[in-house]
Design the sequence.
């Protein structure tokens, strides 16, 4: 079977490798550099399993920038292009998805199109009338940045938005590529699958926001956040997981998915969903105000990445804190070895780590790093449990 995948990001590349174990997979991307890296069996993203599988496993996988080469003769076309949240329209920008679908209709009119890009609830229903309910549907991903292939090889669940033979066939392909023998599989309507994705990520954001607000209260009242969290988490209904405070939720999914779900509630009464979105801004305000109150001359930002093991800067919470501090006229410097630029938003990106530590009065670190142990008295973090 030939499978084409549009987009060589976390979602696209992890699916490409998963499926290339048993099928011919052609990955399409607009970046010649990413295409060249994949063809050279070098991962363009930080992910240990992706790096290992590209280098050491037998995969029927190639990459190209040519649409015809990728799509012609494909049985399935998977859309894994980015859908960033557009603040002007208060919705996802789905233009890249629409471009892929338009090309697919020309190059492979009989192919089944599976959308993996995150989309608004109800989006695929508007497309299904054109393409037929069996030939276009949504299938959500639940991947961690930096462990995307691991999560596909060991899926917590497989959800396919098509209660049909084609939907079952696609689910079978994902199960075939997984290392776990019997992952949970659920076939739903395509709109229901869209809702599952947004509600699941919004619940996770809610949990992050809850423990962050608990931590804000503890910090403001000089009580032990760790002890309170440990006590609360002993309740088995709450559990001792996903409870480590941070500067806020960030990354590819949670910020945009929560905002999109809020938009989907336009005509439905709600309080909680809006509170989850606003809580993340409040947390960044609180952290920034706490630092500003110390009257530092120079604040150092240690790593811009969203979390440990990721090379993604997009919407990382520490950037929001950084911008708030800069807005108060305080000098901010950065140490981010993954950033090639000499500056980040007009803040100097230090190459010399020792000079960065010496220059900073306070160092903000979203996650604890042993590299900062010699200046622990300067470090401000809310990483209580030393984990993501």
Sequence:
């Amino acid at each position: 079977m030939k499978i084409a995948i549009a987009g060589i990001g976390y979602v696209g590349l992890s699916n490409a490798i998963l499926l290339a174990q048993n099928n011919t997979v052609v990955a399409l991307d607009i970046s010649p550099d990413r295409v060249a890296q994949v063809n050279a069996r070098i991962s363009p993203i930080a992910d240990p399993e992706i790096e290992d599988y590209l280098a050491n496993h037998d995969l029927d996988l190639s990459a190209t920038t040519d649409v015809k080469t990728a799509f012609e003769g494909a049985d399935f076309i998977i859309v894994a292009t980015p859908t960033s949240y557009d603040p002007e329209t208060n919705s996802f920008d789905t233009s890249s998805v629409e471009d892929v679908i338009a090309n697919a209709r020309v190059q492979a009119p009989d192919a089944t199109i599976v959308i993996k890009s995150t989309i608004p609830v109800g989006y695929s229903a508007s497309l299904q009338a054109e393409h037929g309910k069996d030939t276009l549907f949504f299938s959500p991903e639940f991947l961690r940045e930096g462990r995307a292939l691991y999560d596909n090889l060991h899926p917590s669940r497989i959800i396919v938005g098509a209660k049909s033979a084609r939907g079952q066939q696609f689910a079978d392909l994902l199960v075939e590529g997984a290392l776990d023998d019997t992952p949970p599989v659920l076939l739903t309507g395509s709109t229901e699958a869209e809702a599952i994705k947004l509600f699941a990520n919004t619940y996770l954001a809610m949990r992050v926001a809850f423990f962050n607000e608990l931590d804000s209260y503890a910090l403001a009242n000089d009580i032990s956040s760790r002890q309170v969290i440990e006590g609360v988490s002993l309740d088995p209904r709450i559990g001792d997981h996903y409870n480590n405070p941070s500067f806020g939720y960030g990354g590819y999914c949670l910020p945009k998915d929560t905002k999109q779900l809020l938009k989907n509630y336009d005509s439905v009464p709600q309080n909680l969903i809006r509170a989850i979105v606003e809580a993340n801004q409040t947390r960044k305000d609180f952290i920034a105000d706490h630092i500003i109150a110390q009257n530092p001359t120079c604040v150092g930002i240690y790593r811009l990445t969203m979390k440990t093991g990721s090379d993604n800067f997009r919407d990382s919470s520490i950037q929001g804190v950084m911008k708030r501090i800069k807005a108060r006229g305080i000098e901010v410097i950065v140490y981010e070895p993954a950033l090639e630029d000499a500056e980040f938003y007009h803040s100097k990106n230090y190459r010399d780590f020792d000079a960065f530590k010496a220059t900073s009065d306070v160092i903000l670190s979203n996650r604890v790093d042993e590299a900062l142990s010699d200046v622990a008295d300067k470090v401000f973090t809310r990483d209580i449990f030393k984990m993501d």
Observations:
- The two ends are 38 Å apart (CA to CA).
